[in-house]
């Protein structure tokens, strides 16, 4: 019986390491497709190991020249749970300056596509459901830094006649994020039967499983229709946080008391972050196949949320 080879077989693929869990899953997926996968860290620990510093351009250029990537997945990311401008410099360094360094290193590389994992936070105060043709209007430093990175990639690609794909991830379940995030705190409280204070929970969020995000990135690497386009990686459906917490509590048979309204909403809280998934489904044949509640509760030992 003749074996059907993968279209990625033997392709040299570069992944910039950011979210290590997502990078690990993406690497495994691509290796299963018989691709040659290379990972590059765009940051290194400082001498006192207290901060991360950008890899200098010459070192990065040398690595890219050695690898000669045909497809690049730019995943590197830094996020905070607050809608705040207090971490603006760090966010710009991680999400924007690292992108500039990467683009500089890729200038003389003849690659087929650069796929960038951006964020739904670039939409900001737009009215949901968010669609790709909306003008970005970020209200947080995180959203702003991701938007600047997007613009840098588009401008660079148009100037140098290179291909790109912008993938805007919504609320991804399954990434390794700080334990002070809402989902992490909620699950910890429910598992231990502790009281859980929160807002009224009216915020609507479009959660997407990390397995589906990996599939979306994979589809973008295969399909020429993805080139020079922007896509939402979302389900197209939302759930408010109150309902989410109540359903998780029921599944865990938790004795926790949920104190709705105990906390105020954050400044500039976006109430509805539902995405429009029509474009990615029609052009890339993307489908969501994983239950968010299953990911958070049944397989909670592997999953948190970004």
Lateral arrangement of strands in the main beta sheet: 2-1-5-6-7-12
**Largest sheet, strands/sense/barrel:** 6 strands, parallel
Question: What share of residues is helical?
Answer: 25-40%
Give the C-alpha Rg.
20 Å
What general outline do the C-alpha atoms trace?
globular
Unreliably modeled segments = 81-85, 299-306
Q: SSE string, helix = H, strand = E? A: EHEEEHEHEHEEHEEEHEEHEEHH
Distance between the termini: 44 Å
Question: Can you count the helices?
Answer: 9
Calculate the mean pLDDT score and round it.
87
Count the E strands. Answer: 15
Strand residue percentage: 15-25%
Derived from helix and strand composition plus strand pairing, the structural class reads alpha/beta
Structure commentary:
This protein is an alpha/beta fold and 306 residues long. The chain is 37% helix and 19% strand. It has helices at 20-32, 57-67, 88-106, 141-160, 182-192, 210-222, 241-252, 278-284, 292-298, and strands at 12-17, 36-41, 43-45, 52-54, 71-74, 113-119, 164-169, 171-173, 196-198, 204-205, 207-209, 229-233, 239-240, 258-260, 272-273. Strands 2-1-5-6-7-12 form a six-stranded parallel β-sheet, sandwiched between helices. A hairpin with a 6-residue loop joins strand 3 and strand 4 (52-54). Helix 2 (57-67) crosses helix 3. The N and C termini lie far apart (44 Å).
Features:
306 residues, alpha/beta, 6-stranded parallel β-sheet, 3-stranded mixed β-sheet, 9 helices, 37% helix, disordered C terminus
């Amino acid at each position: 019986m003749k074996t059907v080879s993968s279209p990625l077989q033997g392709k040299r693929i570069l992944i910039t390491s950011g979210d290590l869990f997502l990078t690990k899953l993406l690497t495994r997926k691509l290796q299963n497709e018989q691709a040659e996968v290379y990972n590059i860290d765009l940051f290194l620990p400082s001498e006192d190991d207290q901060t991360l510093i950008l890899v200098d351009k010459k070192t990065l250029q040398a690595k890219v020249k050695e690898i000669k990537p045909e497809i690049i997945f730019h995943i590197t990311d830094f996020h905070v749970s607050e809608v705040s401008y207090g971490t603006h410099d760090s966010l710009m360094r991680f999400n924007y300056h690292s992108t500039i360094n990467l683009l500089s290193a890729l200038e003389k590389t003849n690659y087929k596509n650069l796929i960038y994992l951006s964020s739904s936070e670039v939409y900001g105060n737009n009215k949901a459901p968010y669609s790709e043709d909306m003008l970005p209007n970020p209200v947080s430093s995180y959203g702003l830094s991701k938007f600047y990175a997007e613009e840098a990639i588009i401008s660079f690609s148009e100037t140098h006649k290179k291909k790109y794909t912008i993938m805007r991830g919504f609320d991804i379940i399954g990434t390794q994020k700080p334990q002070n995030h809402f989902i992490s705190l909620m699950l910890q409280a429910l598992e231990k039967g502790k009281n859980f204070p929160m807002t009224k929970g009216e915020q609507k969020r479009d959660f997407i499983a990390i397995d589906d995000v990996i599939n979306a990135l994979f589809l973008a690497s295969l399909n020429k229709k993805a080139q020079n386009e922007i896509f939402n990686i979302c389900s197209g459906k939302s759930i408010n946080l109150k309902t989410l917490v109540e359903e998780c509590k029921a599944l865990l048979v938790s004795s926790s008391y949920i104190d709705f309204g105990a906390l105020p909403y954050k400044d500039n809280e976006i109430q509805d972050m539902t995405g429009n998934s029509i474009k990615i489904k029609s052009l890339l044949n993307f489908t969501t196949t994983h239950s968010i509640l299953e990911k958070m509760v049944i397989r909670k030992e592997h999953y948190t949320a970004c």
